[in-house]
Amino acid sequence: MGDNIHTQDKLPDIRQTVLLKAPIEKVWKAVSTAEGIAAWFMPPSDFQTVVGFEFHLNAGPFGQSPCKVTEVDPPNRLSFNWGKDWTLTFELAELQGETEFTLIHGGWTAGMATEFGEPHDIVRGRMEQGWSGIGQKLSSYVEG
Known about the structure:
The chain is 28% helix and 33% strand. It has helices spanning 24-32, 34-40, 120-143; strands at 14-20, 54-58, 64-73, 77-82, 86-95, 98-106. A hairpin with a 2-residue loop joins strand 5 and strand 6.
C-alpha cells in the first residue's frame, strides 16, 4: 500500500447489513465454506478458514481474483484480501435465533484504479449496488 496514500483520498467502506431468518451456524457455513460462498457470491477455487490461506475467486469476465484469508473468528467474523486493493469482511451477530450479517468491502482510494484499469470511485458505486443484490441471494440461500 505504501505511505503515499493520503487519508483524504480514502473513500468510505461499503457496508451492507441484512437480518437473516436463520441461525448463526447456518449463516457462518454459507460465508465460510467454498460451497456456501459459491452459492451466493462467486465460486472460489478452494476455500479454507485458515489465516494465510490463498485462493482465487472466479469473477467471471474479470477472470480469477487472488485472495488471502486475513482473519477468522468463527462464527462471528471472517476477513480476506481480494485482488490487489480490497478487503472483504463478513460480520455475524446472533439475535434471538436470527443472524445480523454485515458485509464490509474496504480498500477504496480516490484516484486509484483496479487491476482492470477502472477508477475506484466508479467501481465502488457499481459494487455498492451489486452487494444489495448479493444480500438478497444470501437471504434466499440461508432462509430457503
